Amino acid sequence: MPSKVMSDRLLAVLPDDLRPQAAQRLAAAEPVLRRLLAGLYGGRADFDAWLGDLMESLGALYSARPPELRALDAQRAAQPDWFLSQRMLGYCAYVQNFGGDLNGVAARIPYLRELGVSYLHLLPFLRPRAGENDGGFAVASFDEVDPALGSNADLDALTTQLREAGISLCSDFILNHVADDHAWAQAAKAGDAAARAMFHVFPDRDMPDRHERTLGQVFPQVAPGNFSFVDALDSWVWTTFYPYQWDLNYANPAVFAEMAAAMLRLANRGIEVFRLDSTAFLWKREGTNSMNQPEAHQLLQALRAIVDIVAPGVLLKAEAIVPTRELPAYLGSAQAPECHIAYHSSLMAAGWVALAEQGTGVLREVIRNTPSLPAAATWLSYVRCHDDIGWNVLRAEAAATGSGGSGGGNAGVGASIASNGSNGSAARLARVARFFSGAEGSYAIGAAFQSTDPNAAHGSNGMTASLTGLQSAGSDEERALALRRMLLLHGLALSFGALPVLYMGDELAMENDYSYLQRPQHAMDSRWLQRPVFDQQRWKHRYDVSTVPGMMHQALARLVRIRRRHDALAANAPRTLLADAPDGMLALARGERFLTLMNFSGQPQSYALQGAWRDCVAEQAADGTLVLEPYAMHWLERE
Ligand code: OTU
């Protein structure tokens, strides 16, 4: 069917005044959308009719978009790199932990502004499954706010207030699965064939067993296997995560159309960024691990084309916790844009490896493996998040960089491990995981996640402060070292060249929360260690530099302020890894005029500066040979 016919289906439902603009956007994106969807679903007899209906539903969502959001769309379409500025800073929190409810979050807007936050990621706040729900990642309705957190009207009010404060709201959009009490799952259980076709349902173990041969496991301990038997269906359902999270079947075009519309309805409530959860898993293919499949990228590119037509002010953020080489594809290319932002989980995990090993081999290899990006796309940098720090994404870098861990002669945890080949790299990463669970003479207090095998690494849990030694510190000196380690990791995230996101509580050096052990539904999932309730007492001390929270908060706020002043630190401004630093250090140049020096080891490190510099943090001149104290960081600008 010709492009014009499809575009007309959308234009027909728009009021006259919106048509010229829509026609313009369609001219650019409709052919792309149609090509992508034809590639996925074109073989079906009803493809043209389906696509026509999709266009009409997009038209309805287009005309329902509130004028103030349309204005934002226009503004951002005129400046598509708006989110790459060094003035952008993210903050991530659970609604219930940060503000109690949505109104409580609104009450914290002044605090966020004071920190310089311009992007707020609130972890899942839509109506979750009744009972256990994986921290809200099992969604029962995409159209209702969780009643425990507020109403849809509260969400509308919050997005309005945030927008007025210059803060973009980011919401999770959990598009890989829905809860087993979502209307589709309930209808399927009641015998509705169309609803059943929204999922991957198998009458016996034949196909599940064939898939299992090559699938990995996300939660091997608490949710082993990737299929769950559902009595009401008398069948097996694909459940990559917990058994109550049913994977959606994107081979069915109805799933794509429904999910695209659900996302745009949320966009029309003023959500400006969607964190697309578990994007790697969207398409299944026998004989593979059913991750990062080409069709998953086509689906994301089709979603992007839809956003570019209906709500071009909206950003898509890929959550794909996959090896570094698989990451760039989630940002697409200039010709085929995909997401605007992607989590750089390798960079995040490698910062922690550098601390454990007191050497930067893996970190440098990650940076070398990080390609430059299409113009209006960037990485998300972070120190930690609500999930575990996953080590497996670093297998390739750990294998490529020898044993690691030299840090000024003080053997780091990797020092005695030979790591050529995958067993070596697994053992090396397993040692890092043990380090952060407190073994290997470590200052860290954390928990290994989802692995009982001492030779395998999965992930590590714990708050940044606890993993960097604050919780175990017995003296001011040890506290000072922990503080430096926290600032070092934050400094990496802030100066790397990315959109940095702070994790709630880290700015106040909050420690592990053990209350989850008392909650039977959470006790087996140690990710709850790092999901504490915002500490009001620490917050009150944020200006008091005689306290640890005050020291952390003030030092971090200072880095944020310095970052804002330097356009060399903008997300996609040039970055060069300098090879002349010792292994315990990382030296990162941002253009010709800015230099970040980081000591990941417990020993002093020297670095010979070329030319005259100014230390923007210490506010003093720096030249000649600079000696970096253990875990110290220097941000230098050229004089
Ligand atoms: C995401 O995470 C979420 O961030 C988790 O909180 C959810 O439990 C999960 O999806 C299911 O919705 O693999 O790329 O290892 O890193 O579960 C997606 C733990 C994921 C997480 C993993 C993850």
From TrEMBL:
Domain of life: Bacteria
GO BP annotations listed: carbohydrate metabolic process
InterPro entries: GH (IPR017853), GH13_cat_dom (IPR006047), Glyco_hydro_b (IPR013780), O16G_dom_2 (IPR045857)
Domain Glycosyl hydrolase family 13 catalytic intervals: 92-563
Official protein name in the record: Amylosucrase
Taxonomic lineage of the native organism: Bacteria, Pseudomonadati, Pseudomonadota, Betaproteobacteria, Burkholderiales
